[in-house]
Write a structure and sequence with these properties.
Layout (H helix, E strand, L loop, with lengths): L21 H10 L3 E5 L2 H15 L3 E4 L3 H6 L1 H7 L3 E3 L2 H7 L5 E5 L2 E3 L4 E5 L3 H8 L3 E7 L3 E2 L2 H11 L5 E4 L4 E2 L7 E2 L6 E7 L9
Parallel strand pairs: 1-12, 2-3, 2-4, 4-7, 5-8, 7-12
Antiparallel strand pairs: 5-6, 6-9, 10-11
Helix pairs in contact: 5-6
Amino acid sequence: MSRIDKDWKLNFPAGTFGAHLFPEFAARATAAAAEVFRVPEAADAAEVLIRIVGDGGARKAVVVESPLQEAAGITQALRSRGVAVYTEPEEIAAHADTADIGISGVEFGIAETGSVFQDGFAIETRLVTILPPLHVVFLPSAHIVPGITEAFEVISRSFDRGYVGFITGPSRTADIERVLTIGVHGPSRFVIIAVDGEPGGGGA
């Protein structure tokens, strides 16, 4: 399945987004129990991911590739370290529920809430986001909008049909006796790797 929009950045309101919003975004994302890493270039992102994989002992990954991930050579880096990587839609459908890590891109972040926004039109994206216990996303650090209002402005310029999602930290619920539990309805760990340099020479 295809994405809703190939370049969400084209729909950002002029003058209302940018890397200057990243510190607020990172602070709020961290407060929501997300782990946030910011690196200068895509190649540096691969090193961060490999450390995360090594620390967690991941052996199987399902990956929906984004331009940032391709620029960083994420799939090759994982396979070179013995991680089984599945990238095709039918492979993801078969392995997402037993994968140690799901990896995907996101379109932008929201400074007001520390959330990230994801184009979830493709079912493999939704599987990668929900089923593995660890979800890692790649985000251009300049793709930050101030708040929910601006986020919906962006969505309204693109959305026609399908699925979109806002992710704020790892899965959590307090439905049972108001006791907070992490990871019941989705990943118990959520990692954001933000990259200043964009594929093709862009930057923050």
